[in-house]
Amino acid sequence: MSPLRNKEYEDYLRFIDEALETAKSIPRYFSKFSNKIYCNHQKFAIYILMQKLKLTTRGVVSWLRSNSDARLILGLYRVPVHTTIIRLVNRIKKQVHLVLGIRQAHTVAIDATGFELESKSSYYRNINKHLFPEYKRKTKKYIKLSLVLDTDKQLILKYKINKKAGRDNFMYVKDLIKDLKIKYLIGDKGYDSKYTRGFTIRKLKAIPVIPSAYHNNFYGYMHNKKISGANYHQRSKVETVFSVIKRKYGSVLRNRSYATQQVELIIKPYSI
Questions:
Q1: Using H for helix, E for strand and C for coil, what is the string for the chain?
Q2: Domain stop point among 98, 133, 154
Q3: H, E, C per residue of 51-90
Q4: Which residues of 164-189 are buried (b: 16+ CB within 10 A; e: fewer)?
Q5: At which of 98, 116, 136 does a domain end?
Q6: What residues have CB less than 8 Å from 15, skipping those under 6 apart?
Q7: Domain range for residue 62?
Q8: How confident is the model over 100-148, as pLDDT tens digits?
Q9: pTM of the complete model beyond 0.70
Q10: Given this model, what pLDDT does residue 262 score?
Q11: Are 113 and 46 part of one and the same domain?
Q12: Residues 31 and 91 reside in one and the same domain
């Protein structure tokens, strides 16, 4: 029997419907010989729902078993076992980029944030370096997610995932922006690079609104004229997206392998 209807429950049902629409970007089946008990759209929507509910694969399966309305929207005659969802995640990693279809915007903002790995031991995480100065900390690094956001529509246009911390180099940034058709590229001082500025101006034919790392309120030159930073404040929109992602779904990745961690990182932004 379904739980008592309330606004939050209605939001979940509406979310499932939107997740099914998002899932249509990927193939319905991987093979014509599939048993067709569950289609990829259903399994992909369940995985997105799992991120929203902050559950494991076993947890989301249990949740679906107790929610007949959710099963009805998903078109499920029976609930799949948790390994069915795991197999989808392992297979979808090379096709999940298909949820991205937009490459054009007037103004975009670029930024990055880190996500913690759940597999990290709390013992190693909390070692006091003052009490044990000779002990080498064994904590794993964070995984970094970089996004390019359409600031007008607040849509994610491109993403990139990296296991290395630190400042993004030019080649990393180039991979993020090279296919875009834009007018303005907004970034913070961490993206201040003559190569990034030059590529944006000459190849993208866009204006880089990136403050100088060494001067305040100075955004460089374009065609011998100072670049105005009047729209620099729009960069805060990409920070808002990161804040919403972490507030709703947490900053910890539950998957173990790097491949499935990438899928989880990609799904989180598209679940908001």
A1: CCCCCCHHHHHHHHHHHHHHHHHCCCCCCCCCCCCCCCCHHHHHHHHHHHHHHCCCHHHHHHHHHCCHHHHHHHCCCCCCCHHHHHHHHHHHCCCHHHHCCCCECCEEEEEEEEEEECCCCHHHHCCCCCCCCCCCCCCCCCEEEEEEEECCCCEEEEEEEECCCCCCCHHHHHHHHCCCECCEEECCHHHCCHHHHHHHHHCCCCEEECCCCCCCCCCCEECCEECCCCCHHHHHHHHHHHHHHHHHHCCEECCCCHHHHHHHHHHHHHCC
A2: 98
A3: HHHCCCHHHHHHHHHCCHHHHHHHCCCCCCCHHHHHHHHH
A4: eeeebeeeebeebbeebebebbbbbe
A5: 98
A6: 49, 52, 271
A7: 7-98
A8: 555 678 999 999 888 777 655 444 455 555 555 555 555 556 778 888 8
A9: no
A10: 60
A11: no
A12: yes
The DSSP bridge pattern shows strands 143-150 and 155-162 to be antiparallel
User: What mean pLDDT do residues 42-65 have?
Assistant: 87
**Residue 4, pLDDT score:** 46
Residue corresponding to tokens 């007037």: 106
**What average pLDDT is seen over the chain?**
79
Residues 119 and 248 in one domain: yes
Does 230 fall in a domain? yes
Residue 1 lies in a domain: no
Domain count, the chain: 2
